Amino acid sequence: MLHVTLQQGGASINPNNVRLRINGSEVAVPEGTTILKAAALNGVEIPTLCEIEGLTPYGGCRLCIVEVSGTSKLFPACTTPAAQGMEVTTQSPKLYEYRKMVLQTLLAERTHICAVCVANEHCELQANANNHGVDHVMYERNWSCESIDSSHEFLVIDRNRCILCTRCIRVCDQIEGAHTLDLKFRSKSTNVIMDQDQNWGQAMSCTSCRKCAKVCPVGAIYIENENIEFTKDRDIAAFLSKRRRRSR
Amino acid sequence: MIKDDKRKAMLEKAYIQHNYQESGLLEILHSAQGIYGYLDKDLLLDVADSLNLPPSHVYGVATFYNYFKLKKPGMHVVTGCLGTACYVKSVEQIMTAIEQEFSLKRGGSTADGKLSLLSTRCIGACAMAPNIVVDDEVIGKATKEVVIAKIREKLGCEAVETR
Fold first, then answer.
1. pLDDT per residue over B122-163, tens digit each?
2. Nearest chain A residue (CA) to B40
3. ipTM above 0.90?
């Protein structure tokens, strides 16, 4: 389900480069680069929750939406390739409001209580909510009751805190190559599963590599008795995939 | 379940038809459900092994689609249409009445495994709303009484057939 290939590279002078404007300043990036990557290469940060460098983009969280001139439609920066002559705006009152809305829906969907979360103060959802001035949730909360699985030796999943960004699934598939994790069902009943919806401790294909816990943006997957500061490592996927490419 | 030789041979045929390619996954799941009636975990594992796919992926695909059944359905299957027209014509009430009458829950079967109650999206007979499908028979403009009588008839027939 998650198969979008992207060309990535750092060459600046190249006939295949496309020129576009991001927040008014002109930039050139190789063809096929996403808007998000183009912005990052030029020091413009776009908030995102599901995107992580080194993995295929997913386009699920919708936090990275940007405005493109000539259309009123908003585009997810992580899956939209940069095109010649594009004029992209990454910050505007409209985008701010939309992002705020996205964050509130994420917070309302499951039971997020920061005070009793392992990832408190090290949570990307919390940080983004703070940055966007989300001080309350205007939607009715689901208060859904999802399962917690601590059957693994040291990895724990608390699905109440999951935002279904699929980072863990992608890192498990694309970097570790185990594909232990996947999603089951759809819409409201969607959840992360191990193998055939087994307890984690009984999932044969799990290599206990911890990468799922490292990339989890929230406190859904964590390592028992380990400080979350040590666990979290956003760059692990990029670090491994870059070096893997070189060795080929 | 998977050891049944005749059915296993049919499943093997489906694999060969799709050349054990992962692109044939959905088609194979369709055939597998046709052969076995439902997809249990052993069967899904067999599909995953044969197509060299991760078991979690196969399980994810099978649970994503409403069509695939992971639990053994009852001998008789009653399906309520939850499309907009049927919903407005209060198909919910009929389904609740069936649940109470035969003491089963939506998506489940009765304790004796003779009857299951499922729901589906639109079956395309909106003019006849509300629709209830009993086995392969569509009951249009359904009422509680008619549907329950029909189910009783089916269950009664079963007793005669097994004799």
1. 888 899 889 999 888 899 998 888 998 888 888 876 554 443
2. A196
3. no
CATH number of B76-162: 3.40.30.10
Letter string b/e over residues A24-33, b meaning 16 or more CB atoms within 10 A of that residue's CB:
eeebbbbeeb
Assign domain A96-247 one CATH number from 3.30.70.20, 3.40.50.150, 3.30.360.10, 3.40.50.2300. Answer: 3.30.70.20
> B59, A173: Cβ pair inside 8 Å?
no
Residues 43-62 (B) with a CB less than 8 A from some CB of A? 44-45, 54-57, 59-60
**Which residue in the set A1, A178, A197 is minimally distant from B59, CB to CB?**
A197
HSE value, Cβ hemisphere, 13 Å, CA-based, for A213: 24
Residue of B nearest to A190 (CA): B64
CB distance B54–A184 less than 8 Å? no
- The answer to whether A183 contacts chain B (CB < 8 Å) is yes
pLDDT tens for A150-197 read 999 999 999 999 999 999 999 999 999 999 999 999 888 899 999 999
- The DSSP-derived string for A48-81 is -SS--TTS-----S-TTEEEETT-S-EEETTTSB
Contact A135, A129 (CB under 8 A): no
Computed over its alpha carbons, how large is the radius of gyration of chain B? 18
Please give the Cα distance from B116 to B105 (Å, whole number).
Answer: 8
Q: Do B44 and A180 touch (CB under 8 A)?
A: no
Please report, for chain A, the start and end positions of each structural domain, with discontinuous segments joined by +.
17-91, 96-247
Q: Residue B54 and residue A179: Cβ atoms within 8 Å?
A: yes
The beta-strand segments (E) located in A150-207 are 155-158, 181-184, 191-194
Q: Is B121 on the interface with A (CB under 8 A)?
A: no
Q: What is the CATH number of domain A17-91?
A: 3.10.20.740
- pTM for the whole structure: 0.80
B37: left (phi over 0), alpha (psi -120 to 50) or beta: left
